């Protein structure tokens, strides 16, 4: 059976990762969390002296010092940055506040895009992100674009953070979501947008099961 590249793009907190992981498991494909890659680079940048400040010139000169890989954990895929498990650290609110600024850097996107293309070279992958179907794999056989209202997405992110023990108000999360939307859609290089041949799914009023069924049905058409 021919293997496919499945690209799932969309706005923050639309469930891209949840659906991508489930779809990859159902297809016995490799899952690549590109969002975690950008978060890992952001963490690296914030850890450079003076710690907590973003020095983009320094970051762009230091990209060759960054190594990111994934390992399967007992329950979730684990993200490693230069040999350290940063799966929890990259979900900190401070990363949410800065990741779009880091992701807007052309050098960063070029660096990670090369890695993502290598990971998908043999197909049989599901990648979720913001430019997979437009910039990384415009030739992907299956493309999806997930969207939802900012309020719905903020509530989902807020509930996730409560479960993770992160103390941040819903209002702060909503402001962060809206700010990230603005940054993602207006950046000069590889902005967030729907690929012309992507299936757009508005998930605000859909369950996880309903969204998965739509994705799986579309992929199945390509496999048959």
Question: Would you mind describing this structure in some detail?
Answer:
With 224 residues, the protein is an alpha/beta fold. It has 9 helices and 8 strands. Strands 2-6-1-7-8 form a 5-stranded parallel beta sheet. α2 (34-47) packs across α4 (93-103), α2 crosses α5 (106-119) and α4 (93-103) packs parallel to α8 (170-186). The longest helix has 17 residues, at 170-186. It is globular. It starts with a strand and ends with a helix.
Defining traits:
five-stranded parallel β-sheet, Rossmann fold, 224 residues, alpha/beta, single chain
- Compute the number of strand runs: 8
Total number of domains = 1
Strand order of the largest sheet: 2-6-1-7-8
What is the rounded distance between the termini? 9 Å
Could you say what the CATH topology is called? Rossmann fold
CATH homologous superfamily (4th level) name: P-loop containing nucleotide triphosphate hydrolases
In percent, how helical is the residue content?
40-55%
If helices are DSSP runs of H or I spanning 4 or more residues, what is the number of helices?
9
Mean pLDDT: 95
The general outline is globular
Oligomer: single chain
Q: Quickly name the level 1 CATH class.
A: Alpha Beta
Decide which structural class fits the backbone.
alpha/beta
What's the main sheet like?
Answer: 5 strands, parallel
Following the backbone from N to C, one meets helices and strands in this order, namely EHEHHEEEHHEHEHHEH
Task: Using the CA coordinates, give the radius of gyration.
Answer: 17 Å
Give start-end ranges of low-pLDDT stretches. Answer: none
Second rung of CATH, namely the architecture: 3-Layer(aba) Sandwich
Strand content: 15-25%
């Amino acid at each position: 059976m021919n293997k496919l590249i499945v690209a799932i793009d969309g706005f923050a907190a639309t469930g891209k990762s949840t659906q991508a992981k489930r779809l990859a498991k159902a297809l016995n494909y490799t899952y690549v969390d590109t969002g975690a890659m950008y978060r890992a680079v952001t963490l690296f940048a914030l850890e450079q002296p003076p710690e907590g400040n973003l020095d983009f010139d320094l970051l762009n000169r230091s990209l060759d010092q960054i190594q990111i890989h994934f390992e399967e954990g007992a329950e979730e895929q684990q993200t490693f940055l230069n040999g350290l498990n940063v799966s929890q650290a990259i979900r900190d609110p401070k990363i949410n506040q800065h990741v779009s600024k880091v992701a807007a850097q052309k050098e960063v996107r070029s660096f990670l895009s090369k890695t993502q293309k290598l990971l998908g070279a043999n197909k049989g992958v599901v990648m979720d992100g913001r430019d997979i179907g437009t910039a990384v794999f415009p030739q992907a056989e299956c493309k999806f674009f997930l969207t939802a209202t900012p309020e719905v997405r903020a509530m989902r992110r807020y509930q996730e953070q409560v479960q993770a023990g992160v103390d941040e108000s819903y209002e702060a999360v909503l402001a962060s979501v809206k700010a990230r939307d603005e940054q993602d859609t207006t950046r000069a290089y590889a902005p967030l947008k729907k690929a012309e041949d992507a299936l757009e799914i508005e998930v605000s009023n859909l369950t996880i099961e309903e969204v998965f069924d739509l994705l799986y049905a579309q992929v199945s058409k390509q496999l048959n």
